Amino acid sequence: QKLCRKQTQKHRRGRRHRFLRAAASSRRPDRSDTPMPSRSLRVAVIGAGAAGLVAARELRREGHAPVVFERTDGVGGTWVYEADADASASPEPLVTQRRSNLDASLRTNLPRECMGFLDFPFVAGPDGDTRRFPGHAEVLRYLQSFARRFDLDGLVRLETEVVRVSRETSGTSWRVRYSRKASGSEKRETDEEVFDAVVICNGHYSQPHFADVAGVDAWPGKQLHSTSYRVPEPFHGQVVVVIGCGPSGTDISRDIAGVAKEVHLASRWSLSATSEKLPGHANMWFHSEIDRAQEDGSVVFHDGSRVKADVIMHCTGYIYKYNFPFLTNDATVSVDDNCVDPLYKHVFPPQVAPRLSFIGLPLKVVPFPLFELQSHWVAGVLSGRFKLPSKDEMVRDVTAFHSRLAARGWPRRYTHRLRDREFENEDWLAEQCRRGGPEGWRREMFDAAMQVMVERPENYRDEWDGGDYDHLLAQANRDFAAHCQRP
Ligand code: FAD
């Protein structure tokens, strides 16, 4: 924790300078003065989560005709809670293809004000969850009301899964094959349509990442991933080892500790040579990383401590896999070590830009505002209002970007982790779109949330409203009021 805190403080100092710069340029021009687009295209959007919804809105605002394909029966993506996951866990790790990774008690890890789209404030309504860090149902309500407000529902084809995207021989359009339930029958039928462009918004949180634990194959207990966790009851009286102390690891441990016999958090961040009891909890311990699991049911930690455990819960952050099973080689991108390559600014594959694009790949960001900026950029480039560099220049930019990461010793799988580069990326996108980026208060709120999450993972959400951030909330409310007055 000490190490995390030090890193966060250093990181925050650097960000403060950028924040002050950004705050000075936080006014967003009114979108009504944007010129008419020169080209209107029919665009397939894959996925109706937060990214797909805002992409559809931006495309339509720009004069395009988007069609959104969504394989499930509703909009909202990740934020649709699926209560029926089997939290009692099978003996094998549950590798699911589910849409929802949420547990019943999940609350946002960002204050709502900073999390919402830039021009659709995420404010508490009279009937919903009014907490500053609301539960998942409130986020879904917000996304559904976003879809209603911008009249997007009519653009979405539900229960329609895109199964193949291939380039037409003309090179400028894409054939999209999709599968949907045939009317009046349980059978599925496939169909195809040709679009001028495709925007991929299929999310990337559906393939859980499991920690490598030596000896786990012979270990007799149960394993599951945080994405399969819903409620604590099945862990009643059990000894649970939770791997990872990121947001899901800390939230789930606390949840489970209410019913479990013991909860042991294993973290690579532990600096202690021995395991420690977590203050304020009678049945929670903090350990270093797991060294191995053994046939006799014990789990041995690097610090030398060991426990006989019933369950290993993998809360291995949100390091999930990018997967585009519907893309043919025509897309000219591949995924290697969780890096989608080549991609110009995480959005356009140079060879087929701008007719194919990806929204929402970056990690360690505030997602909704970033999706909005990326979507605005894509829509404007497709209409011809914003210009891309030549293919060669984009390829050179991508190559230089990878060289910079390699020089820092970063593995390829960190390519889309923006973290420190998030604000820079947003400012760059905003500049391309000739608009302001996320407001200064939003960024400062994000930094503050990251810091308290590390310092007080257990209760930062409920202790936020202590007056420290009143000036940021006041600024947010002023900006929101200004938005609401706009036509
Ligand atoms: P998704 O929400 O995954 O949506 C993708 C959609 O595409 C899905 O509806 C899926 O069904 C559909 N789809 C996929 N493939 C196809 C296909 N072939 N054909 C048709 N449809 C398809 N963000 C925050 O801002 N704050 C938080 O507090 C926060 N907490 C999180 C907690 C958890 C546990 C997780 C997993 C994520 C959290 N996030 C949070 C990040 C969250 O993922 C983003 O906020 C955002 O919802 C991602 O949206 P998306 O549209 O990119 O992807």
From TrEMBL:
It comes from the Eukaryota. It is an enzyme of class 1 (oxidoreductase). The keyword rRNA-binding does not apply. Its EC number is 1.-.-.-. Keywords: FAD, Flavoprotein, Monooxygenase, NADP, Oxidoreductase. Belongs to the FMO family. This is Flavin-containing monooxygenase.
